[in-house]
Specification:
It contains ten helices and ten strands. The chain is of the alpha/beta class and 309 residues long. It has two domains: 140 residues, 3-Layer(aba) Sandwich (Rossmann fold), CATH 3.40.50; 141 residues, no CATH class. A six-stranded mixed sheet has the order 3-2-4-5-7-8.
């Protein structure tokens, strides 16, 4: 397991010292321009043909997807729903790691609610055919009549060919769990953006909401950034932050993060399609990276007065 770093300085609120400077793309440092590869950063002044990658998480992401599709369903030609497995782990391995991390009380609460959401989706959205209340991201896609394509590997030749056939120009990744390789990036002219639940360049990697609380930060946030060959590394298109209070739970912070994510994604799409497009650097030398927490990390999380739920 990768050793986690533990930043000691809190991230500054928006508009104060420490906030990233957003510049026209051509004014970015050369190191940031190199990350953009062949991405077209000139807003076309029209709606792009879009595709969505999204994690199969039933608690918060259906609401995020609903807000996105409410505005962009007519120009979104498909959705790929990705596994909830973290990193290179299988779903079972992810569940076992989370059990060790969370402990039996929170884990069983989370698992029980996960199963209940799945049953609701199966009964209400699938069997009854209702999309009045959507309990899964697939149900939200059905509500807006956007097709869902299944693929265990979005980098496969077959999947890339499907995207080319649909004329996909721009991809939005919402808590995606796959890496997007060079061939996929190269055939997407306006790039791939990913929404990450932290104030980049800090807190790259897994479970940013947990780490933000474990490190006793005063503010958390979300960043929508271009995807390049490294994890959570590309220039930042939109960044939004929120206050963290001592009584906040992990569930509080995840809910707030996803609310902001929906707003940030909509703003990102507007900037890329209609401008003005400004970007902030996401420098490697300022990054911190985190993986799956250990028991010691959980104890540090709780020492700040935070709870899981």
């Amino acid at each position: 397991m990768q050793t986690a770093e533990h930043p000691t300085q809190p991230t500054a609120p928006s508009g104060q010292v420490g906030s990233p400077e957003f510049l026209p793309p051509e004014q970015l440092p050369q190191s940031e321009l190199d990350k953009l590869e062949a991405v077209n950063t000139q807003p076309p002044g029209r709606s792009l043909t879009k595709y969505v990658f999204i994690q199969n998480e039933p608690f918060y992401l259906p609401k995020v997807l609903d807000k996105y599709l409410r505005e962009h369903a007519s120009s979104t030609v498909g959705i790929n729903v990705q596994s909830v497995a973290q990193g290179k782990r299988t779903v079972v391995q992810t569940a076992m790691d989370l059990l060790k991390m969370y402990g039996p009380v929170y884990f069983q609460w989370k698992f029980r609610n996960f199963v209940f959401k799945k049953l609701q989706s199966k009964l209400v959205n699938d069997v009854m055919g209702s999309t009045r209340v959507c309990h899964s991201v697939a149900a939200v896609a059905k509500k807006y009549n956007v097709p869902v394509q299944g693929s265990a590997d979005v980098n496969s030749d077959e999947f890339l060919s499907m995207l080319r056939g649909k004329g996909v120009e721009f991809i939005v990744s919402i808590s995606g769990t796959q890496l997007y390789k060079k061939a996929l990036r190269a055939q997407t002219p306006y790039g791939i953006v990913n929404c990450h639940g932290a104030l980049l360049p800090k807190y790259r990697g897994l479970m940013p909401s947990f780490w933000t609380l474990a490190n006793h930060e005063k503010r958390g946030g979300v960043s929508v950034h271009y995807v390049d060959r490294k994890l959570d590394n590309g220039p930042i298109v939109v960044q939004r932050d929120y206050a963290i209070w001592p009584h906040d739970t992990l569930e509080n912070v995840m809910a707030r993060s996803k609310d902001l994510a929906a707003e940030a994604i909509l703003e990102c799409v507007r900037k890329i399609e209609y401008g003005p497009l400004t970007l902030a650097a996401n420098p490697q030398e300022e990054q911190s990276h985190f993986s799956m927490p250990t028991k010691d990390d959980v104890n540090r999380f709780k020492s700040g007065g935070h709870r899981f739920v």
